[in-house]
Amino acid sequence: MKETPLSKCEQEFLLSAVASRKRLDGREVYDYRRMKVVFGVDRGCCQVLLGDTRVMCQVSCQVTSPKATRPTDGLLFINLELSPMASPSFEAGRMSDYAVELNRLVERCLKESRCVDVESLCIMAGEKVWEIRLDIHILNHEGNLLDCALVAAVASLAHFRRPDVTVSAGEITVHSLEDMDPVPLSIHHMPLCVTFAYFDQGKYLLVDPSYKEECVMEGRMIVGMNKHREICTLQMSGNMLLLKEQVLRCTNIASVKVAEITELIKLALANDEKARQAGEKFGFAESVDTTKIVAHETAKQEEVEDISEAESEASKIIEDSSVEDMEETEVHHMGERTAQIGSGGTNTWFVNDNYESLENQAKGNNISNLVSKKKQYKETISSGHLGSDDSEEDVTVVLEQNNLEMREKGASPMEINTNNTTNKSGKKTKKKT
Known about the structure:
Layout: H1 8-19, E1 35-39, E2 45-50, E3 53-64, E4 75-82, H2 97-110, E5 122-124, E6 128-140, H3 145-159, E7 161-162, E8 165-168, E9 171-174, E10 183-184, E11 192-199, E12 204-207, H4 211-216, E13 219-225, E14 231-238, H5 244-278, H6 308-320, E15 331-335, E16 338-341, H7 355-383, H8 401-408, H9 413-432
Parallel strand pairs: 4-6
Antiparallel strand pairs: 1-2, 2-3, 3-6, 5-6, 7-10, 8-9, 11-12, 11-13, 13-14, 15-16
């Protein structure tokens, strides 16, 4: 994926800010971004944060054969990878021109400066030596990758410990970490790089350019130096010409910056070693800043106030309100389906003593109501108002054969009802007689 270029408006805005000696993140012209060096749990694992730029480095070792031209020197292998995780413009498995340039600059600064004593890596001359492998992974690209990668590489080399070895009768024994303490690498000095960005044909100068400032810069100069003011590497790139005074000014600025970064690395190494010896927690997880809102850690609880007085008062109240030991409880039969356990008080729920009399009275009222309704029903039938709309119930009337004949002849419902009542009364009289 190709890198997305900045628009014309963004370029003009950045150049105008540089011309007015201002930067997007509020830094001064010669200021570095905030740098943080963190070590992992394993030896030789280091992560460096330069603003939003993040680089991780891991050092490992193995026993191998030396080169024929240098039979007593160990090997130092450096590998720098630009993964798509750092930037969409980086391709996996393919070395771009920028990646090749970074690899060569790191190798030149570390190998040619002889910061690591490779002769101390020899086990048996001409047969076995230690090979130190340095893997540098770019985790996030926000400008000035070289400075951040070199700090991570130097810090990892200083933090690494290789296993101890013994040679007896031509046999090489590599001891584990439990058998013998590991041995640190012999490092003579710490070479670091400082990157300068130039604008408007070298008229304006910036230290530690960010990603957007690198996109609009006309050229850059890289100064590799240690705290002893010894120049390890020097490179200029871009379409510009610099004067001798400008180069000298850059080297003077670089000497100050290198001394500050070296002290930062030594302080981080001392803190990590102190934590390991004291048995405290260490590693990447412990380096997370918990003061941020996005930190995945709850805030520490405040100290709890002394509650001894409250506890004593509570115990006194409990003692004062303590109930005497209860005797064996007995079950008292209070009535049908009712019992009382213990010597408790009477039931506080509302209970009417005349409940049974009220219940009987209600039953009597219900019976009287039914009788009155039945009488009313009979009166309604006798009066012939069966189909009236005022009735609450539907009344069913059974018609006999003579009633059907009267209905066919055109008789009214009143006449049919009168006929039924006379027939019933006649039957009753017959039974009485």
